[in-house]
Amino acid sequence: MLRVEDLHKSFDDFKAVNGAHLTVESGQLVAVIGPNGAGKTTLFNLITGQLQPGRGRILLNDEDISKLPPHVICRKGIARSFQIANVFPRLSVFRNVQVSVLSQQKLSNKLFRPASQIAVEETGRILESVGLVDKKMDLAGSLSHGDKRILEIAIALGNEPELLILDEPTAGMSPDETATTMALIQRLAADQGLTILFCEHDMEVVFGTAQSIMVMQQGGTIVQGDPQTVRHNTEVQEAYLGDE
Ligand SMILES: Nc1ncnc2c1ncn2[C@@H]1O[C@H](COP(=O)(O)OP(=O)(O)O)[C@@H](O)[C@H]1O
Ligand SMILES: [Mg+2]
User: CA separation (Å) from 9 to 52, 53, 66, 69, 209?
Assistant: First the structure.
């Protein structure tokens, strides 16, 4: 579904992404790992069009999307969450997701049914799938950090994405929240056939969850493969796992 080929992005003289390669198959749960500063967020910003690459290609279903603006890429079916939670704090949980569903439906069809009615069903379904139904009338700003991040995933789901991209979905979470969130991500991929790409700096979070892992270091890709392959890769062990 997605192929990143020899991608480069510099900020002035600094090479933030420097030879990144990535393949995401339809229905897969794929993780990008690498220490802070490895270029994970920049890679995601390139894929979603927030940034434009200096060199390389990004293919979505064989179409080169590397020069397209974010809203066009979004309409092609890529939705994302950000490393810092991004919700409307003074709207209810329900409203946050409904706004997202409504904006998607405005783009995709012009039914004569009242849009809010359609969105109510769809919004409820999404809140159900992420486990936020009980908190749907709470103000988003009053949620715990963990629930805010989950709400962000729900907002991204409102775009009905083909590919969901999550930037450190468990950043700042307690171990319990992290486990819940990773289980949710696995469930979304398994039950809804959603293709999910996420990044993480914590190895532990990734093994046992992702089907394919791409390891980044200093902007470049060291290796991509299944967890076993990556775990036994000597370059990865030297560069990243240290003396584990
Ligand atoms: N807009 C920017 N301008 C200058 N340097 C940046 C910018 N964005 C990121 N960088 C630098 O690029 C490197 C990679 O950053 P980032 O992609 O955020 O890494 P990661 O998400 O893996 O922690 C870092 O050294 C960061 O300081
Ligand atoms: Mg980052």
Answer: 8, 5, 12, 16, 29
Is residue 24 domain-resident? yes
pLDDT one-digit tens code per residue, 7-37 = 999 999 999 999 999 999 999 999 999 999 9
Would residue 142 count as lying in a domain? no
| Domain of residue 17, residue span | 2-77+161-241
- CATH number of the domain within which 47 lies: 3.40.50.300
Q: Per the structure, how many domains does the chain have? A: 1
Ligand 1 proximity of 217 Cβ (cutoff 6 Å): no
> For residue 48, how many other CB atoms are within 10 A of its CB?
21
Tell me which of 14, 36, 42, 203 to substitute to probe ligand 1's pocket, judged by most ligand atoms within 8 Å of the beta carbon.
42
Our answer on whether the CB atom of 39 is closer than 6 Å to any ligand 1 atom is yes
